[in-house]
Design brief:
Layout (H helix, E strand, L loop, with lengths): L9 H10 L4 H15 L11 E2 L7 E2 L7 H7 L3 E7 L16 E3 L2 E2 H12 L2 E6 L4 H11 L6 E4 L3 E2 L1 E2 L16 E2 L6 H7 L2 H7 L4 E6 L9 H9 L4 E7 L9 E5 L4 E4 L9 H4 L7 E10 H11 L7 E6 L9 E6 L13 E4 L11 H8 L3 E3 L5 E3 L13 E4 L1 H4 L2 H7 L6 E11 L2 E3 L4 E10 L5 E3 L4 E2 L3 E3 L1
Parallel strand pairs: 2-18, 3-6, 3-11, 6-7, 12-18, 21-22, 22-24, 23-25, 24-26, 24-27
Antiparallel strand pairs: 1-13, 4-5, 8-10, 9-17, 11-15, 12-15, 13-14, 16-17, 19-20
Helix pairs in contact: 1-2, 3-8
């Protein structure tokens, strides 16, 4: 008999998830968040309940070099976990983003495999239901020396915004589901059995990062600091710059805990405060250090990890802005910092954070701004002048001609321009680059001619170019 206080469509969601073969712990987690949605909670974190974090409240990574030896000893107890659930939809792809060629014909996935090989550590990839088969196929061709362990991110049913019922989309049933955000990594590690496998093999420490942040890698000093201090959770944060104004930030809750506020958790009327990089100075790089033994004990004690909710309003078909409005329930991995006692943050240089979200960033990575070190690790080119080890370049390619990867590749088919001395580059219009072009300083190239323009081989561009 139905409980009269139970949300109207709750059993419909539960039945749908059971029919899909979703595990009870995942269903229970969804129910926990769905009841919040029914109660009209939006997952907002209000400014009145938090305050900015000051520099003296968090450790600086440059003070951890004395822990490098401890980190070396701890390496045999480390696993690298890479979040590999993203599709390259922003770049016009329908396959796993990690299969994009990133540098010198190496894909994101191949570079990740090299990282694990360098440190001789276990590697796990958390795939989504959209990237799993792509990744398996790619690995069968790469044939890595040590095959990574693969586990799947769970999925939540989308919620119709107008009545909070389960979404129904007969044209493509897959669109009725959404990945629940990278906060699912903790539960997915448990339900896959990999968490227990790692612990049984003496693996205690996890370094977790996004697949598209190719400069994120294991750092022995940070590992040593984390292990010697006996910390359960440590988030790498970096200073926000003006270009980061749209993203989330770190704060201190009035209860004393550090907290992560994502952009989607900022109420509209407080959005300007959220975007004030001089007030909220630090952002989450999504490079996380985690004690797996602590995680297992936490799950054993509470049954599941209940992270702060992110309620994302979307369209049911993400490619159709006129499709049915839905809610997607998601969580952020870094938000665990607010619920774990003794969780901390550490300030790291910007050189540990350069995610490739669009073809703008891909151009920088493929250029001479980055190179492979002797041990095949992708690093910022040491010849590039930087302040405080902070890599920064502003690239803005005309989305009409460069947004999709195939369009991008055609226009740079003869090679990527040298950007080692470039601060910013803006391209307006359709422009093809021949080989050995060099761009210096801050440059705008504007083609208003209506047909494709060509930047000739060997050109050195140090000032704006207008083509009409």
């Amino acid at each position: 008999m139905k409980n009269p206080s139970e949300p109207k469509y709750l059993q419909s969601f539960i039945s749908k998830m059971k029919k899909e073969g979703i595990q009870p712990i995942v269903i229970d987690t969804f129910v926990y968040y769905y009841e919040k949605v029914v109660a009209e909670e939006k997952g907002f974190i209000y400014d009145k309940n938090i305050r900015p974090v000051n520099a003296d409240e968090i450790e600086d990574a440059k003070n951890t070099s004395e822990y490098a030896d401890a980190g070396e000893k701890a390496l045999k107890h480390v696993v690298m976990i890479i979040l590999n659930g993203g599709l390259g939809t922003t770049m016009g792809m329908t396959k796993a983003k990690s299969l994009i060629r990133a540098k010198d014909d190496n894909t994101f996935l191949e570079i990740i495999l090299e990282k694990a090989e360098k440190f001789n550590v276990e590697l796990c990839l958390m795939n989504s239901f959209s990237t799993h088969q792509d990744t398996i196929s790619a690995l069968s061709k790469i044939k890595p020396f040590r095959y990574p362990r693969l586990f799947l991110q769970h999925k939540f049913p989308k919620i119709l915004r107008h009545n909070l019922a389960p979404a129904d989309w007969p044209r493509d049933r897959r669109l009725e589901w959404n990945p629940p955000g990278h906060g699912d990594v903790y539960t997915a590690l448990l339900t896959s059995g990999i968490l227990q496998q790692l612990l049984d093999e003496g693996i205690r420490y996890a370094f977790i990062a996004n697949s598209d942040n190719l400069v994120a890698t294991i750092d022995k000093s940070l590992l040593g600091f984390f292990s010697e201090k006996g910390l359960p959770f440590m988030m790498e944060v970096s200073e926000r710059m003006p270009i980061d104004f749209k993203g989330g930030h770190m704060a201190r809750h009035k209860n004393g805990h550090l907290i992560l506020r994502e952009a989607a958790q900022c109420p509209k009327r407080e959005i300007e405060k959220c975007r004030d990089v001089s007030r909220y100075k630090y952002f989450n790089t999504n490079n996380i250090w985690l004690d797996l033994r602590f995680l297992k004990n936490l799950i054993d004690k509470h049954g599941t990890i209940k992270l702060p909710m992110i309620l994302n309003p979307k369209n049911l078909d993400p490619r159709d802005e006129f499709s049915t409005p839905v809610y997607q329930i998601e969580t952020a991995m870094g938000s665990a910092i607010s619920i774990i006692e003794r969780a901390t943050a550490i300030r790291v240089p910007r050189s540990r954070f350069f995610p490739v979200k669009t073809c703008n960033e891909l151009l920088a990575v493929r250029s001479d701004c980055f190179l492979f070190s002797g041990d095949k690790q992708l690093i910022v080119n040491p010849e590039r002048e930087q302040e405080d080890n902070c890599f920064n370049i502003n690239i803005d390619l005309d989305p009409r001609y460069y947004r999709k990867i195939d369009m991008f590749n055609k226009r740079f088919a003869n090679g990527i321009p040298s950007l080692i001395d470039c601060n910013s580059l803006k391209i307006i219009g359709d422009i093809f680059f021949e080989a050995n072009v060099k761009i210096k300083g801050s440059v705008v190239i504007n083609n208003r001619s209506g047909s494709q323009a060509v930047i000739k081989e060997g050109m050195v561009i140090e000032r704006d170019i207008n083509i009409s």
